[in-house]
Design goal:
Layout lengths: L1 H5 L9 H11 L3 H24 L6 E6 L2 H14 L4 E6 L2 H9 L5 E4 L6 E4 L5 H14 L6 E4 L11 H5 L1 H18 L3 H26 L7 H26 L1 H15 L16 H6 L2 H14 L6 H27 L13
Parallel strand pairs: 1-2, 1-3, 4-5
Antiparallel strand pairs: 3-4
Organism: Kribbella steppae
Keywords: Membrane, Transmembrane, Transmembrane helix
Protein name: ABC transporter permease
Length: about 350
């Protein structure tokens, strides 16, 4: 009687036993798990430590004011001191050099005045580059120390630019976390997209408020700074949402790894794109974190000069994310979900 009530033959094993056996067979060996974790840790170290360890000037644009023989002598001296480190361009006078700095065409300038040589920097454009250019002042004329002028300085509340450099990680994590939570908590694809855009706006307003009004790391228009941050978060989150829509969790993981392991360390926010290994700095500027960092510097400190290119990059990522979401929606409509109707049980 008990066998009939339970629906199992007495000699049969419980139904959950084969499931546990299958789970045990599907789990990889411990040595495989340890190997994968070690590989992941190594990749993380390389991604974050390698650009910093190989940071040095590479074709950093500088302007030089002075007679042609003196300019040639300075160029030769810089090439001997730092081979391939600087790319010099001659300008007629100091005012032209200042204008090129403010337009973000060069990082600094050297004014070869026999009476008082001068080095012009822009710490807001890159503190690491400004420090290197300042060190050059002692080499120009050991007898007559060069005057150092910071044309576009960083704010007094954040003279090292630490706030902007540290802001790269929240920009990336904001987009990743938004995409991950929306895919888990919201079923509708359209609502996910609306949620991502809404979060990008609120997140941009919040981060810009902290960096500008509390930490004092930003200057310029608060709404402009907020807009750049919001555009960056939206570009990342919508791209990851689209990848997850098309490829599932693998797409989300792939996009998150690209933004975290490539976009963040190659952003150049802690130094400058020209300070990164050759080619990698240019690649970083084609990813949302690097484009957002350059756009933020331009909008906050240079009245928008040099922001057009980075904003175009962020807009392209935003359009790509919307396109991926659209393709995901079309794919979902084509998938036929069979309906399983419960069959009536004859008693």
């Amino acid at each position: 009687m008990s066998a009939q009530l339970t629906g199992h033959h007495p000699d049969q094993a419980p139904e959950h036993a084969p499931e546990h056996a299958a789970d045990n067979r599907q789990r990889p060996p411990l040595v495989v798990v340890i190997t994968l974790l070690t590989a992941l840790l190594t990749v993380l170290l390389i991604a974050f430590a390698w650009p910093a360890a190989r940071s040095e000037p590479r074709d950093v644009p500088l302007a030089v004011v002075g007679p042609a023989p003196a300019v040639a002598q300075v160029e030769k001296g810089l090439e001997q001191a730092m081979p391939g480190g600087f790319e010099l361009s001659a300008v007629p006078d100091r005012a032209a050099a200042v204008q090129k700095i403010e337009d973000r065409e060069v990082y600094g300038a050297i004014v070869l005045d026999p009476q008082q040589p001068e080095v012009l920097t822009a710490s807001a454009g890159g503190p690491a580059v400004a420090q290197i250019i300042t060190q050059l002042a002692t080499r120009l004329s050991p007898e007559t120390p060069a005057k150092v002028t910071d044309v576009v300085p960083l704010p007094a509340d954040d003279p090292r630019g630490a706030g902007l450099a540290a802001g790269a990680l929240p920009l990336v994590l904001g987009g990743i976390i938004a995409a991950a939570l929306l895919t888990q908590l919201v079923r509708s694809g359209a609502k996910r997209m609306v949620g991502a855009v809404t979060f990008a706006i609120t997140g941009g307003l919040a981060l810009a408020a902290v960096l500008q009004f509390w930490l004092g790391s930003f200057e310029g228009s608060y709404l402009s700074n907020s807009g750049v941050i919001a555009l960056s978060i939206a570009a990342v989150s919508l791209t990851l949402l689209g990848l997850e829509w098309l490829l599932g969790r693998a797409g989300l993981a792939l996009g998150a790894a690209m933004m975290m392991l490539l976009g963040n360390p190659l952003s150049g926010l802690t130094s400058a794109p020209e300070m990164l290994p050759s080619g990698w700095g240019a690649l970083g500027q084609l990813l949302p974190p690097g484009a957002a960092g350059t756009a933020l510097r331009s909008v906050s400190f240079f009245d928008g000069a040099g922001a057009a290119g980075p904003l175009v990059v962020l807009s392209c990522w935003l359009v790509a994310g919307l396109t991926l979401c659209g393709l995901g929606a079309l794919r979902s409509q084509r998938v036929v979900h069979p309906r399983h109707e419960a069959k009536p049980v004859t008693v």
